[in-house]
Specification:
By secondary structure, this protein is of the alpha/beta class. It has two domains: 270 residues, Crotonobetainyl-coa:carnitine coa-transferase, domain 1 (Rossmann fold, 3-Layer(aba) Sandwich); 84 residues, formyl-coa transferase, domain 3, CATH 3.30.1540.10. Helix content is 38%, strand content 15%. It contains 17 helices and 13 strands. The strands form four sheets. The chain has a six-stranded parallel sheet. Helix 1 packs across helix 7. The protein starts with 12 loop residues before the first strand and ends with a helix.
Length: 400
Amino acid sequence: MKDSSKGPLSGLRIIDIATVYAAPFAASLLGDYGAEVLKVELPGKGDPVRGFPPMEGEESLPWAAISRNKRAITLDLRKEKGQEIFLRLLKDQDLLFENFRPGTLDRWGLDEERLRAANPNLIIVHVSGYGQTGPYKKKAGFGTSATAFSGYTGITGYPNHPPLSPPISLADYVTGIFAALGAMAALYHRDAHDGDPQNIDIALYESMFRLLENDTAAYSRLGVVRERAGNELSTAVPVGTFQSADKKWLVLTASTDRTFYRLAELMGRADMKTDPRYSKNHERVKRRSEVTEIVSNWFSNYTAQEIQELCDKNGVPVSPIYSIDDIFQDPQYAARQAIVEVDHPSLGKVKLPGIVPKFSKTPGSIIRTGATLGEHNIEIYTDLGLSKSEINSLIKEGVI
C-alpha cells in the first residue's frame, strides 16, 4: 500500500472478512499504523455499512470513515470457488479478522483446520456478541444488546428514568480497540518469542464489562450494586456537570484531594481543605448533594469563559461540553491534527479523525476513505495470477 512504510506496522498483512463495526474498526486502526488491509465483501451487496446514513448523494459517510486505509475486493466465501481463491489469498496474510456468528465459517467449510492448512502462521481474530464458547455463543450479538448485557447500560442515565444506551456504537468501538490490542499481543508472541500462532476470541459484552472493574470488586466484597446517578461519578466528589451564569454547561473533575483543595481556594472555601467533613474524598462522597450544591452555586456566579480561565490558571480540570461544531473550531484539535482531510473517490475530500496515538518516528497515514465495492478486484486478482478471462468468468458466476 502506498506510503505504508511510514507506519510502524509496515509489512503487516491483514485480511478483513468482517462486517459493520467492531472487527472492521480493529483492522482500520492497524491500517492507520501502516498495515496493508484487504477488505473482502459479498459480491453485489457489500458491507451493510455502505447503506448507513448520513448519506451524501449515494455515498455513506460512515462507510468512508470505518473502512479507511483498506483495499476492497468482492468474493463469495460460501461458494467453493470463492473459498479456493480465499485460501490462496490467505497464504500471505498475518491476521484474519472475522465476526460471523460462531460456527458460521465451520458450516461453510472454512473451519480452522482448513484455514491453518492454507497458512500455518495465521493469527485469527474472532469477534462476536457473546464469544466462541458458553451457552449464549450462537445468539445474535449487536453492540446495543451487548452493552446492556455487560451491565453498562444499567448504570447509565438518571434515577427514576429509563436506562440510556450510548448514542454511538460504543461496544463495537471499544471491542475493536481490544481486538487490535489482542492481535498485536499475539503477533508479538508469534514473532518475538517464536510462539505458535493462535486464535483470539473477543466478545462485545466482555469488552464493555472490562470497564466495570470497580463495580465488580465492590459487589464481590461489599455487595454494592451501583444504580444510575446521572453525571455523578460514584467514586469521587465533586465530579459532574455544572452550569455557568451565562447558562453554559461545563464538566468539572476534582476527583483527587489535591485538586479539590485548589478548587476550594478558588471558591473562597479554604476551610473545606481542613474540615474533616470535606478534606478527604471518601467523606465528600458521603455528602455528595451538599458539596455539589456548594460547587453549583459558585459556578452560577461566573460566565463559562471566566470559570475556564480561573480553573485553567489554578490547575482545576474543567471543560466546556463540546458539540462537533465546537470541535471543528477549536485550536487544540487543529494543532494536534485531530481532524484530517482524506481523498474520497466521488466526494473529493472528507474530514475524518486523525491517527491515535501519535508516533514520533513512524506516524502512519490515512491514504484513502472507504473504497468502492470491488474497487481493487482487478489489481488483487491479477496479482494472484488470475487471467482476465478467469476474472470475467468468476464475475459471471457471482464468485467475485
